[in-house]
Specification:
By secondary structure, the chain is α+β, with helices and mostly antiparallel strands. The chain has 15 helices and eleven strands. It has a six-stranded mixed β-sheet with strand order 1-2-6-3-5-4, with helices on both faces.
């Protein structure tokens, strides 16, 4: 009989080998990193531009430019573009984050000759229709107004503003006026300056053969525009953290955010802090979850996050609780931080977390789509396979003593902002 009260044994993860991407360049110099999986019939083409908030000269223009890329070219309307990709069972998405804008094509290999040229058309001949921009502005403002009624959103906006500064690209918060101020000429100028070959990289994964490379070269590889080179003249302010309360009488819950400024992935403590954050609140069995959800029942969800951007980073703890449990929850959060500073992590707990993280990394190397995400992250952050291997070894070999030292350096209460919204 299976005894479900006894947990299965924790086994060591297998060796983690990141496939080596083949490096090519198109005629215009755009780097192409190829992950060829010849037994797969899928193709994923991801073009990444350093065209995010740090490159903006007007707020929200990076998001607007990315969103409107698919809304029409000089030859097709947005509806025609969407119908075209749907017909071939393909998808073309334009997600953007704080640092980059990504154009991602998924297709079956047999339809690559049809869809890649249209992807190139979307990239090189965007129309940025004025009517679509007005729709984007109205929709974004409405979504923003809805979000501003949520205490979790209010708390997150405030703590990132405090950590990075209200004029920092990682810290500023959008307003309705930011959207209203956008003009089609802003999008065109941003596109011409930043969606250029010297500011781009391609990751091609799946069944990538000579035909795929030729299709990319025939379309995207012929773009000769010259734009600007990215820089980052921003720095988070050095301000003594404090407690900030955002009242919202209509809310039944209080959102809690506790956080601080940290670093990007090139920092020597990045890997160790990754493990420390996981122990604290980075997975379902974390200390915060065990204490505040499972033991005390104060909340349904609590977590901590270590966010790395190209030029900086932040750490924060987040949860939502009933108003009358907010003070007790904050007390328990600080108690868990104190415990990490004062007592080394138990070897059994650390062994479990190591294997959890290595298992997550192993899952990230499963198949062409997941692997391309890992490789893309390394490339954009100017890291190599050696950096990946170093991260894996750091997770395998980190000690309780190192984790305690990191907690003593980065988890001191006097260095943490505390934001509550709804109290």
């Amino acid at each position: 009989m299976l005894n479900r009260k006894i947990a299965p044994p924790i086994l060591e993860s297998v060796r983690l080998d990141l496939p080596q991407a083949e490096y090519l360049t198109l005629d215009n110099g755009i780097p192409v990193y190829v992950l060829d999986f010849p037994d797969q019939e899928i193709v994923k083409i991801e073009l990444v531009y350093r065209a995010g908030r740090p490159q903006e000269r007007k707020r929200m223009v990076a998001r607007a430019c990315a969103r409107l890329l698919r809304e029409g070219t000089t030859q097709r309307t947005g509806a025609e573009i969407a119908e075209f990709f749907d017909f071939y069972g393909a998808s073309l998405n334009t997600p953007n984050n704080l640092d980059t804008t990504n154009i991602v094509l998924f297709s079956l290999k047999k339809y690559a000759a049809q869809v890649i040229p249209v992807m190139a058309e979307v990239l090189l001949q965007p129309a940025f229709p004025a009517s679509e921009l007005e729709t984007f502005k109205r929709t974004s403002i409405q979504e923003l107004l809805v979000d501003l009624e949520k205490v979790e959103i209010l708390a997150y906006r405030k703590i990132t503003e405090l950590i990075f500064g209200e004029h920092h690209p990682y810290g500023y918060n959008s307003t309705p006026d930011d959207y209203l101020a956008l003009d089609r000429s802003d999008l065109v100028a941003f596109y011409e300056q930043w969606y250029t070959p010297k500011n781009a990289v391609i990751i091609a994964s799946g069944r990538i053969d000579t035909e795929i490379i030729q299709l990319l070269n025939a379309g995207i590889g012929q773009d000769r525009r010259v734009g600007m080179q990215p820089d980052f003249p921003f720095k988070a302010p050095s301000i003594l953290p404090e407690k900030i309360t955002i009242p919202m009488a209509s809310s039944l819950q209080t959102a809690i955010k506790i956080g601080r400024n940290t670093f990007n992935r090139h920092h020597p403590h990045a890997h160790g802090f990754f493990v420390l954050n996981t122990i604290l609140g980075g997975y379902f069995g974390s200390r915060l979850m065990t204490n505040i959800r499972e033991k005390r029942g104060y909340t349904y969800n609590i977590y901590s996050s270590s966010d790395h951007y190209l030029n900086d980073g932040c750490f924060y703890i987040a949860t939502e609780v009933n108003r009358d449990k907010a003070a007790a929850t904050i007390k328990q959060i600080y108690a868990e931080l104190k415990l990490l500073r004062e007592k080394p992590v138990d070897e059994q707990e650390l062994h479990m977390v190591r294997n959890y993280l290595l298992g997550m990394i192993l899952n990230g190397l499963d198949g062409p789509l997941n692997t391309s995400d890992v490789v893309r992250g390394l490339i954009i952050e100017n890291q190599t396979k050696a950096d990946f291997d170093h991260m894996v070894e750091s997770i395998r070999n980190i000690t309780p003593e190192i984790l305690q030292e990191l907690a003593q350096e980065y988890l001191k209460p006097e260095d943490l902002w505390l934001v509550t919204a709804g109290a």
